[in-house]
Amino acid sequence: MRFSTRAVHLGIRPAENHLPVSMPIFQSSTFEWEDMEHEPDPIYTRYGNPTRYGLEQLLASLEGGRHALCTSTGMGAVATAFSILKAGDHIVCTRDVYGGTANYLKKALAPLGVEHTFCDMTHPNNLCAALKPNTKMVWLETPSNPILQITDIRRCAQIAKEAGAVVGADNTFASPYFQNPLSLGVDVVMHSTTKYINGHNDVVGGVLIWNDDKFTEPFHLFTKVAGCTPGPFDCWLILRGARTLELRMKRHQESAMKIAAWLSSHRNVRKVFYPGLPSHPGHEIAKAQMSGFSGMVSFELENADAASQAVKKMRLFAFAASLGGISSLVGYPAKMSHAMLSQEERNEMGATDGLLRLSIGLEDPDDLIADLDEAL
Ligand SMILES: Cc1ncc(COP(=O)(O)O)c(C=O)c1O
Predict the structure, then answer these.
(1) CATH of region 50-242, choose from 3.40.640.10, 3.50.50.60, 3.40.1080.10, 3.60.110.10
(2) Reported confidence tier of residue 20, pLDDT bands at 50, 70, 90
(3) What residue segments make up the domains of the chain, in order of their start?
(4) Cβ pair 136, 165 in contact under 8 A
(5) Which neighbouring-strand residues pair with 355?
Protein backbone atom coordinates (compact mmCIF):
# COMPACT_ATOMS: atom_id res chain seq x y z
CA MET A 1 0.00 0.00 0.00
CA ARG A 2 1.23 3.45 -0.84
CA PHE A 3 1.43 6.43 1.53
CA SER A 4 -2.06 7.93 1.05
CA THR A 5 -3.80 4.53 1.24
CA ARG A 6 -1.98 3.67 4.47
CA ALA A 7 -2.84 7.14 5.83
CA VAL A 8 -6.53 6.48 5.18
CA HIS A 9 -6.82 2.80 6.22
CA LEU A 10 -4.50 2.05 9.14
CA GLY A 11 -5.07 2.55 12.85
CA ILE A 12 -8.87 2.21 12.82
CA ARG A 13 -9.50 -1.03 14.72
CA PRO A 14 -8.34 -1.55 18.29
CA ALA A 15 -6.60 -4.85 19.07
CA GLU A 16 -9.18 -7.39 20.22
CA ASN A 17 -7.61 -8.03 23.61
CA HIS A 18 -8.11 -4.44 24.79
CA LEU A 19 -10.54 -4.29 27.71
CA PRO A 20 -11.10 -0.62 28.53
CA VAL A 21 -12.28 0.28 32.03
CA SER A 22 -14.06 3.34 30.67
CA MET A 23 -16.53 3.31 27.76
CA PRO A 24 -14.59 4.47 24.67
CA ILE A 25 -15.96 7.26 22.49
CA PHE A 26 -17.00 5.54 19.24
CA GLN A 27 -16.40 8.61 17.12
CA SER A 28 -17.54 7.02 13.88
CA SER A 29 -20.47 8.16 11.76
CA THR A 30 -20.96 4.74 10.16
CA PHE A 31 -20.18 1.05 10.78
CA GLU A 32 -18.98 -1.52 8.28
CA TRP A 33 -21.22 -4.39 7.10
CA GLU A 34 -19.73 -7.88 7.12
CA ASP A 35 -21.76 -8.70 3.97
CA MET A 36 -25.22 -8.02 2.50
CA GLU A 37 -26.88 -10.66 4.68
CA HIS A 38 -25.65 -9.29 8.00
CA GLU A 39 -26.88 -5.84 8.99
CA PRO A 40 -24.58 -4.45 11.67
CA ASP A 41 -25.93 -2.85 14.83
CA PRO A 42 -25.36 0.04 14.83
CA ILE A 43 -25.49 0.82 11.13
CA TYR A 44 -25.06 4.57 11.33
CA THR A 45 -24.68 6.95 14.27
CA ARG A 46 -28.03 8.69 13.74
CA TYR A 47 -29.59 5.24 14.29
CA GLY A 48 -27.31 4.10 17.11
CA ASN A 49 -23.77 4.16 18.45
CA PRO A 50 -21.97 1.93 20.98
CA THR A 51 -21.20 4.88 23.30
CA ARG A 52 -24.86 5.86 23.21
CA TYR A 53 -25.90 2.25 23.87
CA GLY A 54 -23.68 2.25 26.97
CA LEU A 55 -25.36 5.41 28.24
CA GLU A 56 -28.82 4.01 27.48
CA GLN A 57 -28.04 0.78 29.35
CA LEU A 58 -26.92 2.77 32.39
CA LEU A 59 -29.84 5.23 32.41
CA ALA A 60 -32.45 2.47 31.95
CA SER A 61 -31.01 0.74 34.99
CA LEU A 62 -30.76 3.88 37.15
CA GLU A 63 -34.39 4.75 36.37
CA GLY A 64 -35.58 1.15 36.84
CA GLY A 65 -36.78 0.67 33.25
CA ARG A 66 -36.23 -1.90 30.51
CA HIS A 67 -35.59 0.48 27.61
CA ALA A 68 -33.87 3.84 27.20
CA LEU A 69 -33.36 6.06 24.18
CA CYS A 70 -31.05 9.06 24.26
CA THR A 71 -31.75 12.23 22.33
CA SER A 72 -29.68 15.25 21.39
CA THR A 73 -31.46 17.50 23.93
CA GLY A 74 -34.15 17.25 26.59
CA MET A 75 -36.58 18.88 24.14
CA GLY A 76 -35.69 16.15 21.64
CA ALA A 77 -36.90 13.64 24.25
CA VAL A 78 -40.11 15.63 24.85
CA ALA A 79 -40.76 15.78 21.08
CA THR A 80 -40.12 12.03 20.82
CA ALA A 81 -42.55 11.25 23.65
CA PHE A 82 -45.20 13.50 22.06
CA SER A 83 -44.63 11.95 18.61
CA ILE A 84 -47.16 9.20 19.43
CA LEU A 85 -49.91 11.87 19.38
CA LYS A 86 -51.74 12.56 16.14
CA ALA A 87 -54.28 15.11 14.84
CA GLY A 88 -57.47 14.94 16.89
CA ASP A 89 -55.70 13.68 20.04
CA HIS A 90 -55.66 15.61 23.30
CA ILE A 91 -52.97 15.86 25.97
CA VAL A 92 -53.31 17.11 29.55
CA CYS A 93 -50.10 18.74 30.77
CA THR A 94 -48.95 20.01 34.17
CA ARG A 95 -49.62 23.77 34.28
CA ASP A 96 -46.24 24.93 35.58
CA VAL A 97 -44.34 22.77 33.13
CA TYR A 98 -40.95 23.69 31.63
CA GLY A 99 -41.59 26.64 29.26
CA GLY A 100 -40.13 24.80 26.25
CA THR A 101 -42.56 21.91 26.73
CA ALA A 102 -45.49 24.34 26.95
CA ASN A 103 -44.24 26.09 23.83
CA TYR A 104 -43.88 22.80 21.93
CA LEU A 105 -47.52 21.99 22.65
CA LYS A 106 -48.66 25.46 21.64
CA LYS A 107 -46.39 26.27 18.71
CA ALA A 108 -45.57 22.89 17.18
CA LEU A 109 -48.40 20.48 18.01
CA ALA A 110 -51.52 22.69 18.20
CA PRO A 111 -51.14 23.81 14.56
CA LEU A 112 -50.99 20.11 13.59
CA GLY A 113 -54.31 19.46 15.35
CA VAL A 114 -53.10 18.05 18.69
CA GLU A 115 -55.13 19.72 21.44
CA HIS A 116 -53.81 20.42 24.92
CA THR A 117 -55.07 21.50 28.33
CA PHE A 118 -52.76 22.85 31.03
CA CYS A 119 -53.86 21.65 34.42
CA ASP A 120 -52.86 22.30 38.04
CA MET A 121 -52.17 18.68 38.95
CA THR A 122 -51.41 19.37 42.58
CA HIS A 123 -55.10 18.47 42.99
CA PRO A 124 -55.79 15.17 41.20
CA ASN A 125 -59.46 16.17 40.85
CA ASN A 126 -58.36 18.86 38.40
CA LEU A 127 -56.93 16.11 36.21
CA CYS A 128 -60.27 14.25 36.27
CA ALA A 129 -61.96 17.45 35.09
CA ALA A 130 -59.42 18.08 32.32
CA LEU A 131 -59.69 14.62 30.73
CA LYS A 132 -61.65 14.35 27.47
CA PRO A 133 -62.77 11.35 25.42
CA ASN A 134 -59.83 11.99 23.05
CA THR A 135 -57.18 12.38 25.81
CA LYS A 136 -54.30 10.16 24.71
CA MET A 137 -51.57 11.39 27.03
CA VAL A 138 -51.08 12.96 30.45
CA TRP A 139 -47.76 14.73 31.01
CA LEU A 140 -46.54 15.26 34.54
CA GLU A 141 -43.62 17.31 35.80
CA THR A 142 -42.81 17.02 39.48
CA PRO A 143 -41.13 18.82 41.17
CA SER A 144 -42.27 21.37 38.61
CA ASN A 145 -40.49 24.27 37.03
CA PRO A 146 -40.13 26.95 38.39
CA ILE A 147 -42.11 26.83 41.66
CA LEU A 148 -41.39 23.22 42.59
CA GLN A 149 -44.95 22.07 42.97
CA ILE A 150 -45.50 18.42 43.76
CA THR A 151 -47.91 16.15 41.90
CA ASP A 152 -49.07 12.86 43.40
CA ILE A 153 -47.64 10.66 40.65
CA ARG A 154 -49.31 7.40 41.67
CA ARG A 155 -52.77 8.96 41.95
CA CYS A 156 -52.54 10.94 38.69
CA ALA A 157 -51.12 7.95 36.79
CA GLN A 158 -54.02 5.84 38.04
CA ILE A 159 -56.61 8.43 36.92
CA ALA A 160 -54.93 8.78 33.52
CA LYS A 161 -54.68 5.01 33.02
CA GLU A 162 -58.36 4.53 33.84
CA ALA A 163 -59.08 7.01 31.04
CA GLY A 164 -56.85 5.01 28.68
CA ALA A 165 -54.13 7.67 28.41
CA VAL A 166 -50.37 7.13 28.26
CA VAL A 167 -48.64 8.77 31.22
CA GLY A 168 -45.34 10.59 30.75
CA ALA A 169 -43.27 12.29 33.45
CA ASP A 170 -40.46 14.81 33.20
CA ASN A 171 -38.21 13.66 36.05
CA THR A 172 -35.42 16.17 35.37
CA PHE A 173 -35.65 18.09 38.67
CA ALA A 174 -35.60 14.99 40.89
CA SER A 175 -33.06 12.92 38.91
CA PRO A 176 -33.33 9.11 38.96
CA TYR A 177 -31.53 9.12 42.30
CA PHE A 178 -34.43 10.70 44.19
CA GLN A 179 -37.50 9.60 42.21
CA ASN A 180 -38.45 6.73 39.88
CA PRO A 181 -41.83 7.44 38.28
CA LEU A 182 -42.02 4.07 36.46
CA SER A 183 -42.39 2.42 39.85
CA LEU A 184 -45.35 4.74 40.56
CA GLY A 185 -47.33 3.83 37.44
CA VAL A 186 -45.86 6.15 34.80
CA ASP A 187 -45.33 4.71 31.30
CA VAL A 188 -42.56 6.94 29.98
CA VAL A 189 -39.98 8.89 32.00
CA MET A 190 -38.13 11.79 30.42
CA HIS A 191 -34.98 13.62 31.54
CA SER A 192 -33.06 16.55 30.24
CA THR A 193 -29.68 14.87 30.81
CA THR A 194 -28.22 18.36 30.37
CA LYS A 195 -29.09 18.84 34.05
CA TYR A 196 -28.33 16.56 37.03
CA ILE A 197 -27.49 13.41 35.07
CA ASN A 198 -24.56 15.08 33.31
CA GLY A 199 -24.11 17.53 36.15
CA HIS A 200 -21.22 19.59 34.80
CA ASN A 201 -22.89 22.26 32.62
CA ASP A 202 -20.88 21.15 29.59
CA VAL A 203 -23.32 19.30 27.32
CA VAL A 204 -26.99 19.13 26.29
CA GLY A 205 -28.90 15.85 26.02
CA GLY A 206 -32.11 14.01 26.80
CA VAL A 207 -33.45 10.53 27.42
CA LEU A 208 -36.72 8.59 27.47
CA ILE A 209 -37.05 5.44 29.61
CA TRP A 210 -39.96 2.98 29.50
CA ASN A 211 -40.96 -0.65 30.08
CA ASP A 212 -43.69 -1.49 27.58
CA ASP A 213 -42.33 -2.77 24.24
CA LYS A 214 -45.14 -0.98 22.38
CA PHE A 215 -43.21 2.32 22.65
CA THR A 216 -39.92 0.97 21.35
CA GLU A 217 -40.62 1.05 17.62
CA PRO A 218 -42.36 4.46 17.44
CA PHE A 219 -39.78 6.21 19.62
CA HIS A 220 -36.82 4.79 17.69
CA LEU A 221 -38.50 5.58 14.39
CA PHE A 222 -39.12 9.21 15.39
CA THR A 223 -35.56 9.90 16.53
CA LYS A 224 -34.17 8.23 13.39
CA VAL A 225 -36.31 10.22 10.96
CA ALA A 226 -36.27 13.50 12.88
CA GLY A 227 -32.54 13.13 13.50
CA CYS A 228 -32.62 14.21 17.16
CA THR A 229 -30.08 11.63 18.37
CA PRO A 230 -26.90 12.61 20.22
CA GLY A 231 -23.32 12.36 19.04
CA PRO A 232 -20.90 9.92 20.72
CA PHE A 233 -18.83 12.55 22.51
CA ASP A 234 -21.93 14.09 24.12
CA CYS A 235 -23.01 10.61 25.24
CA TRP A 236 -19.59 10.01 26.73
CA LEU A 237 -19.70 13.26 28.72
CA ILE A 238 -23.15 12.38 30.07
CA LEU A 239 -22.02 8.84 30.87
CA ARG A 240 -19.04 10.16 32.77
CA GLY A 241 -21.18 12.64 34.70
CA ALA A 242 -23.76 10.00 35.60
CA ARG A 243 -21.11 7.91 37.39
CA THR A 244 -21.16 10.36 40.32
CA LEU A 245 -24.90 11.10 40.35
CA GLU A 246 -25.52 9.70 43.82
CA LEU A 247 -22.68 11.63 45.46
CA ARG A 248 -23.67 14.87 43.78
CA MET A 249 -27.40 14.54 44.49
CA LYS A 250 -26.79 13.94 48.19
CA ARG A 251 -24.71 17.09 48.42
CA HIS A 252 -27.10 19.19 46.24
CA GLN A 253 -30.00 18.28 48.51
CA GLU A 254 -28.14 18.76 51.80
CA SER A 255 -27.07 22.26 50.77
CA ALA A 256 -30.47 23.13 49.24
CA MET A 257 -32.20 22.22 52.50
CA LYS A 258 -29.88 24.46 54.49
CA ILE A 259 -30.24 27.37 52.05
CA ALA A 260 -34.05 27.04 51.81
CA ALA A 261 -34.31 27.16 55.60
CA TRP A 262 -32.03 30.21 55.72
CA LEU A 263 -34.01 32.03 52.99
CA SER A 264 -37.27 31.29 54.84
CA SER A 265 -36.15 33.42 57.75
CA HIS A 266 -34.87 36.35 55.64
CA ARG A 267 -36.91 39.53 55.97
CA ASN A 268 -36.67 40.46 52.25
CA VAL A 269 -37.88 37.09 51.03
CA ARG A 270 -41.62 36.87 50.52
CA LYS A 271 -41.89 33.16 49.81
CA VAL A 272 -39.59 30.15 49.51
CA PHE A 273 -40.43 27.17 47.31
CA TYR A 274 -38.62 23.98 48.33
CA PRO A 275 -40.43 20.64 48.75
CA GLY A 276 -38.11 19.66 51.59
CA LEU A 277 -39.55 22.37 53.85
CA PRO A 278 -42.38 21.02 56.05
CA SER A 279 -44.30 24.23 55.19
CA HIS A 280 -44.33 23.35 51.46
CA PRO A 281 -47.88 22.27 50.48
CA GLY A 282 -46.54 19.19 48.67
CA HIS A 283 -44.08 18.15 51.39
CA GLU A 284 -45.95 15.02 52.53
CA ILE A 285 -46.50 13.73 49.00
CA ALA A 286 -42.86 14.50 48.13
CA LYS A 287 -41.76 12.54 51.19
CA ALA A 288 -43.87 9.58 50.12
CA GLN A 289 -42.76 9.40 46.49
CA MET A 290 -39.21 10.79 46.57
CA SER A 291 -36.23 9.63 48.57
CA GLY A 292 -34.91 13.23 48.75
CA PHE A 293 -35.92 16.72 47.67
CA SER A 294 -33.17 17.56 45.18
CA GLY A 295 -31.25 20.78 44.78
CA MET A 296 -33.57 23.41 43.32
CA VAL A 297 -34.85 26.29 45.46
CA SER A 298 -37.01 29.15 44.19
CA PHE A 299 -37.84 32.27 46.15
CA GLU A 300 -39.82 35.42 45.64
CA LEU A 301 -38.65 38.96 46.24
CA GLU A 302 -40.87 42.03 46.21
CA ASN A 303 -40.66 42.78 42.48
CA ALA A 304 -38.55 42.63 39.32
CA ASP A 305 -36.29 45.44 40.52
CA ALA A 306 -35.48 43.67 43.79
CA ALA A 307 -34.73 40.47 41.86
CA SER A 308 -32.49 42.34 39.42
CA GLN A 309 -30.55 44.06 42.22
CA ALA A 310 -30.01 40.76 44.05
CA VAL A 311 -28.76 38.98 40.95
CA LYS A 312 -26.25 41.76 40.25
CA LYS A 313 -24.71 41.36 43.69
CA MET A 314 -24.33 37.58 43.64
CA ARG A 315 -20.76 36.40 43.13
CA LEU A 316 -20.94 32.61 43.44
CA PHE A 317 -24.27 32.12 41.66
CA ALA A 318 -23.75 32.65 37.93
CA PHE A 319 -26.74 34.36 36.33
CA ALA A 320 -27.52 31.79 33.67
CA ALA A 321 -30.27 29.49 32.41
CA SER A 322 -30.11 25.75 33.17
CA LEU A 323 -29.61 23.79 36.39
CA GLY A 324 -28.21 20.67 37.94
CA GLY A 325 -24.49 21.33 37.54
CA ILE A 326 -21.64 21.35 40.04
CA SER A 327 -21.57 25.17 40.15
CA SER A 328 -24.48 27.20 41.47
CA LEU A 329 -26.69 29.15 39.08
CA VAL A 330 -29.39 31.73 39.60
CA GLY A 331 -32.12 31.97 37.01
CA TYR A 332 -34.85 34.50 36.36
CA PRO A 333 -37.77 32.42 34.98
CA ALA A 334 -39.59 35.50 33.62
CA LYS A 335 -36.73 36.11 31.18
CA MET A 336 -35.24 32.62 30.91
CA SER A 337 -37.04 29.27 31.21
CA HIS A 338 -40.52 30.85 30.93
CA ALA A 339 -39.77 33.86 28.70
CA MET A 340 -41.89 32.45 25.87
CA LEU A 341 -45.05 32.62 28.00
CA SER A 342 -47.15 35.76 28.45
CA GLN A 343 -46.96 37.64 31.75
CA GLU A 344 -50.50 36.51 32.53
CA GLU A 345 -49.56 32.87 31.97
CA ARG A 346 -46.43 33.28 34.11
CA ASN A 347 -48.35 34.87 36.98
CA GLU A 348 -50.95 32.11 36.79
CA MET A 349 -48.26 29.45 37.29
CA GLY A 350 -46.42 31.42 39.99
CA ALA A 351 -43.44 32.57 37.90
CA THR A 352 -43.95 36.16 39.05
CA ASP A 353 -41.61 39.06 38.27
CA GLY A 354 -39.94 38.79 41.69
CA LEU A 355 -39.17 35.06 41.40
CA LEU A 356 -35.59 33.79 41.31
CA ARG A 357 -34.64 30.15 40.89
CA LEU A 358 -31.48 28.75 42.41
CA SER A 359 -29.70 25.63 41.28
CA ILE A 360 -27.60 24.79 44.31
CA GLY A 361 -24.18 23.53 43.30
CA LEU A 362 -21.50 21.63 45.16
CA GLU A 363 -19.78 24.63 46.75
CA ASP A 364 -19.65 24.91 50.55
CA PRO A 365 -23.22 25.84 51.56
CA ASP A 366 -21.96 28.42 54.05
CA ASP A 367 -20.18 30.27 51.26
CA LEU A 368 -23.38 30.20 49.21
CA ILE A 369 -25.37 31.57 52.16
CA ALA A 370 -22.81 34.33 52.68
CA ASP A 371 -23.15 35.24 48.99
CA LEU A 372 -26.96 35.34 49.22
CA ASP A 373 -26.75 37.34 52.45
CA GLU A 374 -24.63 39.95 50.72
CA ALA A 375 -26.99 40.05 47.72
CA LEU A 376 -30.23 40.32 49.72
C1 LIG B 1 -37.62 20.38 33.51
C2 LIG B 1 -37.02 20.52 32.16
N3 LIG B 1 -37.44 19.73 31.17
C4 LIG B 1 -36.92 19.82 29.91
C5 LIG B 1 -35.95 20.75 29.61
C6 LIG B 1 -35.39 20.82 28.22
O7 LIG B 1 -34.11 20.29 28.18
P8 LIG B 1 -32.97 20.72 27.14
O9 LIG B 1 -32.62 22.15 27.42
O10 LIG B 1 -31.88 19.75 27.40
O11 LIG B 1 -33.55 20.58 25.77
C12 LIG B 1 -35.48 21.60 30.61
C13 LIG B 1 -34.42 22.59 30.30
O14 LIG B 1 -34.21 23.54 31.04
C15 LIG B 1 -36.03 21.48 31.92
O16 LIG B 1 -35.62 22.28 32.92
Answers:
(1) 3.40.640.10
(2) very high
(3) 50-242, 245-375
(4) yes
(5) 300
Separation of 192 CA from ligand 1 center, angstroms?
5
Residues 6+ apart with CB under 8 A from 181: 140, 153, 157, 169, 171, 189
The percentage of residues in the chain with a pLDDT greater than 90, rounded to a whole number, is: 92
User: Is 48:41 a contact under the CB 8 Å cutoff?
Assistant: yes
- The reported pTM is 0.96
317 lines ligand 1 (CB under 6 A): no
Segment 245-269 mean pLDDT: 98
**What is the pLDDT at residue 343?**
85
For 314-373, write each residue's pLDDT tens digit: 999 999 999 999 999 999 998 888 887 788 888 887 889 999 999 999 999 999 999 999
C-alpha separations of 295 from 116, 191, 342 in Å: 30, 16, 27
Which phi-psi region, left, alpha or beta, contains residue 342 (left: φ > 0; alpha: ψ -120 to 50)? beta
Asked whether 252 and 362 are in contact (CB, 8 A), the reply is yes
DSSP character for 281? T
Q: Answer whether residue 289 shows pLDDT above 90.
A: yes
- Asked whether 37 and 44 are in contact (CB, 8 A), the reply is no
Provide the CATH number for the domain formed by 245-375 in this structure. 3.90.1150.10
pLDDT of residue 96: 87
Which residue is closest in CA terms to ligand 1's atom 10? 74
- Which of 70, 98, 104, 175, when mutated, tests ligand 1's pocket best, judged by the most ligand atoms within 8 Å of its CB? 98
Taking the centre of ligand 1 as the mean of its atom positions, its distance from the CA of residue 308, in whole angstroms, is 23
Q: Is the CB of 74 under 6 A from ligand 1?
A: yes
